[in-house]
Amino acid sequence: xxxxxxxxxxxxxxxxxxxxxxxxxxxxxxxxxxxxxxxxxxxxxxxxxxxxxxxxxxxxxxxxxxxxxxxxxxxxxxxxxxxxxxxxxxxxxxxxxxxxxxxxxxxxxxxxxxxxxxxxxxxxxxxxxxxxxxxxxxxxxxxxxxxxxxxxxxxxxxxxxxxxxxxxxxxxxxxxxxxxxxxxxxxxxxxxxxxxxxxxxxxxxxxxxxxxxxxxxxxxxxxxxxxxxxxxxxxxxxxxxxxxxxxxxxxxxxxxxxxxxxxxxxxxxxxxxxxxxxxxxxxxxxxx
Length: 288
Description:
The chain is α/β, with parallel strands linked by helices. The chain has helices at residues 18-27, 44-49, 84-95, 97-110, 117-124, 131-140, 171-180, 201-209, 224-237, 263-272; strands at 3-7, 32-35, 56-67, 70-77, 184-187, 214-218, 240-243, 279-280. Strands 1, 2, 3, 4, 5, 6, 7 and 8 form an eight-stranded mixed β-sheet that branches. Helix 5 (117-124) crosses helix 6.
């Protein structure tokens, strides 16, 4: 089985619609794909409706969190999307995205970059506007070569010249809320140092003690030695280890299924979840 547990659609900052994403996942030879848009579940219904034969969909979200001044992302899988407290927190984060993005556009303009809010909003479309949309505008203007190049201290990285804060969850609250909604939590790309500051291993240990289920190890932003260190840490802390593409369509160079999760780990995630179940396409695969 080929399992990719971290992807994005136009419901947040990907370039594939949810329907296109599941069709492309099937074409890429995946058996299981998770749709984990930022702080929203809005793309799930479209993805389910378009789910091809032989592909199973894991519903999820990537929650924006902050601990000790460090931004981090928490992947939440198979939670009840209607659980009111978690739904309320996702809404607070989404509502803060537009004013935050406007602030960053204003900072860029003060730095002499001729970026316009209307263009950023147009790039975001119906998705949850965020830094990748602003980064795309910077690529269009020739300020940076790639979206990733915009995530530096010079521009949009945490603490960067054009960075602005937004409402974010405390990760301990995120773990509690996701578990209360029957879901499973995995710390996304925990050692992606090129994105900015990362949490020390002592903080990951604190999250594990609070109920964190796993960490994303195999990811494009982790080199070989980093992955080995994270696997050792996961063994020490009793955490699951996942691998995922963090696919954003044409916004990033990584392809669907470029990094994958072991079927046994996927099985354990589905066994722990009680809020929702993987959705198989006609004849799709499912581990219960």
